[in-house]
Amino acid sequence: MRKQSSLMLGAVCLIFYATGCDSDRLQNFATFAGLGTTYVTAFHGLTKAAGDAYIANSNATMIEARTMSGDPVAAAPTLLPLVKKNADLTRDYLINLQKLDTQADLLGSYFAATAQLSGTKSSDAISASTASLVDALKGVAPQIEDLKIGTNSVASFLPQAGTVAVAHFEVKALDKRLEADAPVIDHALALQEAAVAAISAQLAAALKDSSDMFEVSHIERPYASAGNLPASWAADREEVIRTTVVLDNAEGAKEASTKLRKSFEDLVSNKNAQLDLKGLLDAIQKMSGYVTAVNSTTAKSTK
Amino acid sequence: MTNPSDLYASTLSTLYQSKLTLLSDAWHDSLASPTTTKQQRIDSSVKLVETSNAITTLSNTQLSAILSQMTAQESALTSAINGVNAAVKNLQEVQTVLDAVTKIIGVVAKIVPLL
Questions:
Q1: Hey, which bits of A98-257 come out as E strands?
Q2: Contact at CB, A103 and B67, closer than 8 angstroms
Q3: Who has greater pLDDT, A174 or A68?
């Protein structure tokens, strides 16, 4: 009986030793997966803003070209096929953005599955089962409760035993998956980075171009013309100035995808890494803020 | 060697710069000049739309290049998702095993005092 008790004490000590950092790591997994899901939502906002900005820019350009021709009727045979082609290209652009959204959703599914694996749903059920097992062990070997780990009795640890064991099971499962999936997910995150960099640059360029066209047609030409300025002139000029401030924040969108990848790499490469999850959250919020500002600018420029 | 994304960015910037030139006050004034013909004004408007179309074509090419890489690894990503979902299922199976062991131990607990 003494040998059996010693074995049990050894087993209990081993479990507590092995699972010492499990709950921290599990928390990192869960937070990272949650932020990954939030990032995907922000990415959808970015693609929607890019699509809207492209349509607004396309409309403004077609209107400007019509005016520039001086004679829309005479220009129509040459201009109209190009206008139709522009509609097709803009449609293709929207389809590409839609496909990127689908790819981001796929990445979102990975984050959702990881969140489930590191979440509380499965934990609760397994925790209950483990607690029952511990109770059953007590039935076979009641002396287990009298054993000591340091100065504390095993009995004082028993209420936590279920949670600790669950964290250990989950961390093992997550680490195993990470080991297998890391190259694929890292590549997917690298492509996300490339996509966000491309979309941000295209969006900023389209926004600047729209703002330039708006400035020429609504600010400079009226200002250089005889007669009174339009009543909206001051407000329009303010809008152009504010747009330049929005454009300066384009980098914020890129930061989110870069930090998401960096956090993943840290999570994979170092089990004890202190992840900058607060920094990642801030970057995602900046991305969302940029999208909100772009949407407001696009809406005003198409008035 | 030039980075492809830098090449896209610099070409995009040049195209927008060309568009901006066509929209400038100086160009606008030259089109308004009496010496400018109707056909020249139409040609200018055509160039403006063509430039815009070139910008959208380039943007589409850039996104398509990224998308084709994403599509190429789509099955690997799906497989990774399935792997995590299977791990979730395995954890649920752990619960089943724990429950089964608990039952057996419960039976043993009843037998041991009789031995």
A1: 148-149, 152-153
A2: yes
A3: A68
pLDDT for A219-270, tens place per residue? 988 998 898 999 999 999 998 888 877 777 777 788 999 999 999 888 888 7
Taking an 8 Å cut-off on Cβ atoms, the answer to whether B73 and A187 are in contact is yes
Domain span holding position B88: 76-115
Number of domains present in the structure of chain B: 2
- The residues in A 72-91 lying below 8 A from B, measured between CB atoms, are 74-75, 78-79, 82-83, 85-86, 89-90
Nearest to B95 among A83, A126, A184 (CB): A126
| Shared-domain flag, residues B54 and B80 | no
Q: Are residues B67 and B97 in the same domain?
A: no
Answer yes or no: do B55 and B10 share one domain.
Answer: yes
Residue B11 shares a structural domain with residue B64: yes
Nearest to A200 by CA among B66, B1, B53, B20: B66
Q: Are B11 and B41 part of one and the same domain? A: yes
Q: Smallest Cβ distance to A65: which of B45, B69, B90?
A: B45
- For residues B48 and B80, state if they share a domain: no
Q: Map residue B88 onto helix, strand or coil.
A: helix
Classified as helix, coil or strand, A46 is helix
**How many angstroms separate the most distant Cα atoms in chain A?**
106
Residues B15 and B36 in one domain: yes
pTM exceeds 0.90 for this model: no
Q: pLDDT at position A199, please?
A: 92
- Give pLDDT, residue A87: 97
Distance from C-alpha of A226 to C-alpha of A219, rounded to nearest angstrom: 13
Indicate the number of domains in chain A.
Answer: 1
Beta-carbon count within 10 A of B19 CB: 25
Could you tell me the residue range of the domain that residue A66 belongs to? 2-301
Partners of B49 on chain A (C-beta within 8 Å) are: 61-62, 65, 79, 82-83, 86
Residue B53 distance to chain A (closest CA, Å)? 6
Tokens 């710069």 — which residue? B17
